[in-house]
Structure formats: C-alpha cells, structure tokens
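YM 10:42: Fibronectin type-III domain-containing protein sequence, as discussed on the call
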Amino acid sequence: MAGSHAANWSFVAIDPDRGAVNHRCATYYDDWVWFLSSEGFARIGISGPSELFVDKAKLSFAAFDNFQNCWVEANVPERMVVFACHEAGAAGTFPTLLVQVDTRTGRFVTREYLAAGPITLISMHAARVPQVGAVAAGLGPSGPPTIAAATNITGNSWDANWANGDVTAGTTTRHEMRDVDEAEAFVQDASEDVPIVTTPITGKIPGTIYEERVRHERNSIFSIYSPASGGQEVKTDPPVAPSALVIMGSSPSGVTLRVEHSNHSGVGDIQIWERTAGEPCPVSAGSWFLVKTIVNAVSVEQTVISGILCGKAYQFKARWVRTGFTDSAYGVDEPCVVPCL
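YM 10:58: structure's back
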C-alpha cells in the first residue's frame, strides 16, 4: 500500500504543542490515523506494519489558524485524500475549507474556501499545483442528496431511498454500505442516475446491522455524504429459523445436540427449548420450556443438554434471537430421544 511510496516522502514532526504547527486533525479513516497541520499531513497505517509518512508541502495561508474540527472526507487509495474543516465558530454541518492532497506526489493540489450551505468537492487541478479560488461552478453537483428511511426490509435485502439534491443531467447518486457487525469500511455497492431516488440492496446476511450513505457525483466531482457523518442504520430483519437441529447422541450425562443457522454468526443467541414426551416418542408431549441459551452462536454449534433421566423421552426445538431484531421462527426439526436406550 503506502509503503511503496516511502521514497517520495520526508519526515516532518507534527507537534500540537508548537503554535506554528496549528494541528487541526487527528482522525481514523480507512485503516489510517490521519493528521493535518499547517506544516503538512501525516498518516499512520493500522493494518500491517505501522508506517508514518509526512508531506513536504506547507499549508501556507494564515486563515488556517481559524479552522478546527477537521476530518477525512474521502480517501482514494494510492491517489488522494480530502480533509474537510469547520471554521472556528461556524454554524451548521458543512465544512468551510477543503484540503485535497495527491498522495502519489505528496502535494497539496487543492485548498478551497467554501461558502455556507451545500458544497462541491472540486476535482484535482490538471497541473497539480495549489489553487485557491471559486468552486468550479456548474461542473459538480450543487448539493448532496438527502438519505431517507430504508423500505421493504427483509432478512437479506432492502430498498435504499433518498431525495436528490441536484437533478442536473449527468449527475449520479452513489450508494455506499458497510457491515457494522464486521466493522467493515464503507464500499460503493450501487449507483443510480438522477432523477431516480431508490435502488435495491440485495444479497445481505439476515440478522445483521448495516449502515448506508449516499452522495452525488458529476464530472468526477463529489458532494458530501448524507448522512454527513457515519451512516444510516439498517437491520436485516427478520432473521431466519435454524436450518438444522440434530441429536448427535445421548447418555446418562445428557443429550448432545448440533444446531445450524444462516444468520450473522457470533452476534445473536440460539435458544434451545425442551419438553418431556411419551413413548413412542413424541406421543403425549408436555409444555415447552427454555432449557439452554448459546450466547453469540456461530453458524454451527454443538452442545450438551444435561439433567435428563434415562428411559424418559425428550423433545427439542431451537430458534435464533438478537436484541433489536424479531425472534426467528423455530426450526422445523423437533427431534425426540429416549436417553440411554
């Protein structure tokens, strides 16, 4: 990754206690910890060997002293990173300064002051030199889309919805999604041209928490995201019932069961329910009661139900449950056994 560019960078200490440095950013994004100051920018890799790269360029404009609360707005690996900052005391959620860096050359290629309201990320200047001035009027989207609540949610799909912030021909809405349970980064998984305001999201894992966000793009120029920070939560609900519940054996010490399910592994629980039965199994069965909970169950679990009596019939069933989700239906398997026979 970035380690291959070590020769293009030189080390510059970034010390927030030095007044001239004007440290404004320390944030985590795309497996990097990013720093921004008036003397340059740095990033420390989290995945793999930790490495520090600092740009030789300077943010040589006095107004930088007025900016605070900077964050990484976008990162295109091996190409560029965009920092966005709020001016001290500025109201609203829109940044008032963008700093775009070419990570291949270590040069600050765009430093753009922005008016309040919807913003446009201007594309990298062809000559790759610092450029301060007006936003490239009309080239990019005039404002971001506004994400709306997901609809038609099932165990493995939903419809993503939004209101367009720009309906100019050639504008595209980019949808990004991440698996919160797996702590994944956002990735683009769908796109639609305006005026379309919905797109189907499919192939997801039941019982999973996802986040989604959208932004407009035109002429390789992007709006900010909606939501502006993080993503909108979507839960793939309802989960599906366990696909198998099998009696592996029995003895005086208990009944061994194997349970299988296809919901998100390791975040929900398997409940195993038991009732006594008559012979031949399961004639004259009694009332069900919860006998065991397997916490954060993986896709295949094997467990022993103890406290049984030899020669007495027992029947079992199972379901998958998770806080905030609908309990799954019970699996169709309801095996019955008479231990020790």
